[in-house]
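ok posting inputs for the fructose -6-phosphate job
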Amino acid sequence: MCGIFAYSGKQKNAGELVIRGLKKLEYRGYDSWGVAYQAPEKLGLLRKVGKIGEFNLEYNKMPESTLAIGHSRWATHGGVTEANAHPHTNAEGTIAIVHNGIIENYQELKKELEEKGYIFKSQTDTETIVHLLDLYCKTDDFVSAAKKTLARLHGRYAVLAVKTGEHKIIAARRGSPLIIGVGENEHFIASDIPAFLEYTQQIMYLDDNEMVVINDKPHFYNLETQEEVEKRVVTIDLKPESAEKGNFAHFMIKEIMEQKDTIYRAINQNDTDILKLAEEIKKAYGTFFVGCGTAGKVCLAASYVFAKVAKRHVNVVVGSEFPSHQDFLKEKSLVVAVSQSGETADTLEAIEVAKKKGAKVLSIVNVVGSTMDRMSDYTIHIKAGPEKAVASTKATTSQLAILTLLAYACNNDLQEGKRLLIETAGQINDMLNPRYEEHIQKLADKIKNVESMYVIGKSVNYPIALEAAIKLQEVSYIHAEGFAGGELKHGPIALISEGTPCIVLVANDETRQDILNNAQEVKARGGYIIGISPQQESVFDYWIKVPDAGMASSLVNIIPIQLLAYHLAVLRQNNPDMPRNLAKSVTVK
Ligand code: F6R
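and the output
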């Protein structure tokens, strides 16, 4: 949430380079954007409302500069206006900062600064940082002033500062990501690695409560002890093209199609590690699956697989609600955190709560080196490659695959789990063909103007119905809701009228007849029944065939929903990669 990109080095147009980098981070926020570059007299500043992707560098040349910081914003405090866009500057325009996160004590700081005569130009919490820094710069050098400023901030942040006459960038983090890219006589700072992947694969991690001062060489400091910290340069195994759209119209469809391969990659794990982690689950006094949004639905789906395959009860709690459950945590409890980005603030907070209680944490993440990866006792990387569309697709199925594998491993049946998932991966590969997509496109065309739609499922397909609703809502903007099929008659069936689409997720197991009965109840009230099922059933008005995947039915049933959501978005002329009001990687609580 909010993209940060900065450059310091030998290239002659840092401003342009930062704008190009920010375009790659646009999925993190697209309300407004801005860049500050070092100009001889004072800092040059460019800020705009709207998407940076629409800014044409051909027609808007930037002045020469070798140092610049930039930001693409997802609004938290203050509306979407140019005045609220980052970077924010002091009154003289000699200090500029960009920030991702929320400064929880900003009102108190603002009051203090206003009493000292500072005039605020925006409604953001961020502006307090630049005035505070200005205040301390009156008595201290830039680096000491930055340390004093950071010590006053409460909340989560990633923040970058530059000052006229100082050829350096100061960056610090607490809870929001920042990674340093190391080139030859040049450095990049970004919220996410894909932003600088075309220049370097050498990186340095900035950890929480650390600050880095980058001029010729980066100097890292621990903000608690104030001591300098040694850091290693790490080479990452990511190809620049993995973060590009290639020939696809959107990242979302590219990432849906990548599921031909990502499930194989996810389950290609070291058996000994999986068995060791299964033992951790078995010996835990209480296992808590935690995630937010789609990842939370994955946790719920996995709890059914654990119940059925491993005969184990696991607690499922969404990240933001986790603190209310902390009294049940013991030192021997295990928290399994599921996250694509590894940076979601609510899930991170759950981990912090768990660690304070002495519980162990296993993270299932996609982004290697992310905060969750680094703060957990154990991590399983799902290896899906960069997921840039805001709506999660390939990460979802990979997370489901890993948790299914763990459930089988808990039942001392790892090889059986692998066999099932390899077969499912093959079936998904077969599903993702042009004819299948066309069949779903046809359905999208039929229902593209409806006001509401519903999705029902039972057992493991109940959480998938909830996930389906998220997918449909966020990119098509059609009102969609998911229910357990059996719940309809307790209230929601009142919403069904003539022609209301109801997607029915069917698995070829003991739940089949019940969910088909629920579909009949909807049809009897005029509902238009879309069946996602291994076999044709008389109740269906439109049938989308899925393979009979047994315990992996959640993985196959979500694929047509992802395709449907994508095509509805395109037909309704929405940008599926950047849905309104949302952003990838939710780093604020
Ligand atoms: C929806 C979606 C979100 C994320 C949620 C958690 O398509 O992607 O609901 O699942 O914000 O994000 P991660 O997995 O990065 O923790």
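notes: The chain has three domains: 3-242, 245-432, 433-589. Residues 292-295, 339-341, 344, 347, 391-392, 470, 474, 585-586 surround fructose -6-phosphate (CB under 6 Å).
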